[in-house]
């Protein structure tokens, strides 16, 4: 085949992009720039990619993460040279710890200009360090391993740095270079899996479930185990069935009961766990055996500090085996559930105007198979683990890989492109303001609903032991602020609603979830001091 390489396209670049497409990559989030223009043009003019243009690299990275979260396929995020790639870092590390496949393409200066004080030039090779599964520099016509590395278990982000010399732009009418013969594509290999899942007969068993996507077949097994008396505990991000909703963070609040909860056998499924109490409990009251179920984890993650075995297997295989065994649960955990439910029922009968009560009301109103919920970090993700009402029909997502507030809204906007369901973002005022560039693009769909809890600052610091009594609390931790979302909504062409009391909230919620031709924001205003008082009073009920 005769080859013609236009000067605007580095030799072999178009072949790289086509090779990625051959391997099933068909989406790219592109940040505007000059140095990365050849990469952008190669993808846009290829015709096989759905390309999104997002100006803010930090938001773009999380938007791409949201896309990969929903499609289960690698998504390209692409930027120009210099500090632009560093702004991808929060999304890249989140993808690494959530095991989400991203392909990061960063344009760069040619090697001879690195370290020469040339503009927009930094050291970009290995830019993300240990937080990518694979990093390489672009070499023409070399078989790329990006998709294979991103999709091999555990999945995660990969990085290719692409040095590009001028000129960046093709001449008028200049076509893409012809593509060489397709390169050989290496299929990723599934690791050899374990087959022995026998629990010691007669041992008391406790199952914990970390963040995981909704999976009906797995949930059927989890429900069966729970109904058979095995405590199955997980945060809202575990997307467990109603039978497993134990409100563990509240059951474990009374330290007097902790010794009776100690299991002889512990099995953990999924990834990270929000509840600090469970982690501290298992670190103190260690089981004789503790398993982590994961096909091929990076390293040997042991958040409970009692790991005795990594079971390299798929969750469904282990659950199938467990449901065929005669097992005994930790009975004291199940006994505590009835008392807890009575306390919650009595407390939530009074509707105080506090975030805790409002969250409880909204969960009961919004939980539906026709919606999915993206919960921001800090207090938001904790409230939904403490309320009486729980999400059992809506799938719950959250950036719990690194648990940062950056990019929570951008992830939800990216994910919203893949569904006709209502995509509901539950987010605090600081997290919203930090990521409001999530709305600075053309992809905020009519199915997006954003609920902002505005308590004029970082409310979580008012309940943290040690932090809440510091004289520097308000200025340097809570970071009191007076910003509202109204002008941001106006700029983005989003319908805006607000509520200062129960009457206004009930009125706004009558229409908030209805179909519309525009996205909607509901901003709920509360008093941070009242929120803290109510939450502390609520928690005391479970410590008695």
UniProtKB/TrEMBL annotation:
Binds 1 thiamine pyrophosphate per subunit. It catalyses: isochorismate + 2-oxoglutarate + H(+) = 5-enolpyruvoyl-6-hydroxy-2-succinyl-cyclohex-3-ene-1-carboxylate + CO2. One of its GO terms (molecular function) is 2-succinyl-5-enolpyruvyl-6-hydroxy-3-cyclohexene-1-carboxylic-acid synthase activity. SUPFAM superfamilies: Thiamin diphosphate-binding fold (THDP-binding). Pathway: Quinol/quinone metabolism; menaquinone biosynthesis; Quinol/quinone metabolism; 1,4-dihydroxy-2-naphthoate biosynthesis; 1,4-dihydroxy-2-naphthoate from chorismate: step 2/7. Residues 207-362 form the Menaquinone biosynthesis protein MenD middle domain. Its EC number is 2.2.1.9. InterPro entries: MenaQ_synth_MenD (IPR004433), MenD_middle (IPR032264), THDP-binding (IPR029061), Thiamin_PyroP_enz_TPP-bd_dom (IPR012001). Its cofactor is Mg(2+); Mn(2+); thiamine diphosphate. Keywords: Magnesium, Manganese, Menaquinone biosynthesis, Metal-binding, Thiamine pyrophosphate, Transferase. Residues 16-120 form the Thiamine pyrophosphate enzyme N-terminal TPP-binding domain. Homodimer. Catalyzes the thiamine diphosphate-dependent decarboxylation of 2-oxoglutarate and the subsequent addition of the resulting succinic semialdehyde-thiamine pyrophosphate anion to isochorismate to yield 2-succinyl-5-enolpyruvyl-6-hydroxy-3-cyclohexene-1-carboxylate (SEPHCHC). Belongs to the TPP enzyme family. MenD subfamily. This is 2-succinyl-5-enolpyruvyl-6-hydroxy-3-cyclohexene-1-carboxylate synthase. It comes from Aquirufa avitistagni. The gene is menD.
């Amino acid at each position: 085949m005769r080859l013609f390489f236009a000067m605007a396209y580095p030799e072999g670049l178009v072949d790289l992009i086509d090779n990625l497409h051959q391997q099933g990559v068909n989406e790219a989030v592109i940040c505007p720039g000059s140095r990365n223009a050849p990469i952008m043009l190669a993808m846009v003019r290829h015709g096989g990619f759905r390309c999104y243009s997002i100006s803010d690299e930090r938001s773009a990275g999380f938007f791409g993460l949201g896309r990969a979260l929903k499609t289960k396929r690698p998504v390209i995020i692409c930027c120009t040279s210099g500090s632009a790639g560093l702004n991808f870092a929060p999304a890249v590390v989140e993808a690494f710890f959530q095991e989400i496949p991203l392909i990061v393409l960063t344009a760069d200066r040619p090697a001879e200009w690195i370290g020469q004080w040339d503009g927009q030039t930094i050291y970009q090779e290995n830019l993300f360090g240990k937080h990518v599964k694979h990093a390489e520099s672009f070499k023409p016509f070399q078989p790329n391993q990006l998709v294979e590395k991103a999709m091999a278990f555990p999945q995660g982000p990969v990085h290719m740095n692409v040095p590009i010399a001028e000129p960046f732009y093709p001449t008028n009418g200049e076509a893409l270079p012809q593509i060489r013969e397709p390169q050989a594509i290496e299929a990723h290999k599934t690791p050899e899996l374990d087959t022995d899942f026998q629990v010691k007969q007669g041992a008391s068993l406790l199952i914990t479930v970390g963040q995981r996507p909704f999976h009906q077949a797995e949930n059927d097994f989890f429900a069966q185990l729970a109904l058979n008396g095995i405590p199955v505990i997980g945060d809202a991000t575990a997307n467990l069935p109603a039978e497993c909703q134990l409100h563990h963070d509240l059951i474990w609040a009374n330290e007097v009961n902790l010794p009776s909860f100690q299991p002889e056998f512990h099995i953990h499924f999924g990834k990270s766990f929000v509840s600090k109490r469970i982690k501290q409990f298992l670190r103190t009251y260690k089981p004789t055996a503790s398993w982590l179920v994961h096909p091929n984890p990076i390293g040997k993650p042991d958040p409970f500090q009692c790991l005795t075995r990594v079971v390299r297997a798929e969750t469904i295989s282990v659950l199938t085996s467990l449901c065929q065994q005669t097992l005994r649960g930790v009975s004291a955990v199940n006994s505590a559930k009835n008392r807890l439910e009575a306390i919650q029922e009595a407390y939530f009968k009074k509707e105080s105007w506090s975030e805790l009560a409002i969250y409880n009301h909204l969960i009961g109103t919004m939980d539906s198979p026709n919606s999915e919920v993206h919960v921001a970090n800090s207090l938001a993700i904790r409230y939904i683990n403490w309320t009486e009402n729980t999400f059992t029909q809506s799938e719950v997502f959250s950036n719990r890989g690194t648990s940062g507030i950056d990019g929570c809204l951008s992830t939800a906007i990216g994910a919203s492109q893949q569904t006709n369901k209502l995509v509901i973002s539950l987010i605090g005022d600081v997290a919203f303001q930090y990521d409001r560039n999530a709305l600075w693009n053309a992809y905020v769909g009519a199915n997006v609903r954003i609920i902002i809890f505005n308590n004029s600052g970082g409310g979580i610091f008012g309940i943290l032991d040690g932090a809440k009594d510091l004289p520097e609390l308000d200025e340097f931790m809570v970071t009191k602020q007076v910003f509202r979302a109204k002008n941001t909504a106006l700029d983005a062409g989003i319908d805006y609603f607000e509520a200062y009391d129960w009457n206004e909230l009930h009125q706004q919620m009558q229409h908030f979830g209805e179909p519309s031709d525009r996205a909607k924001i509901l901003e709920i205003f509360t008093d941070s001091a009242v929120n803290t008082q109510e939450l502390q009073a609520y928690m005391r009920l479970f410590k008695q």
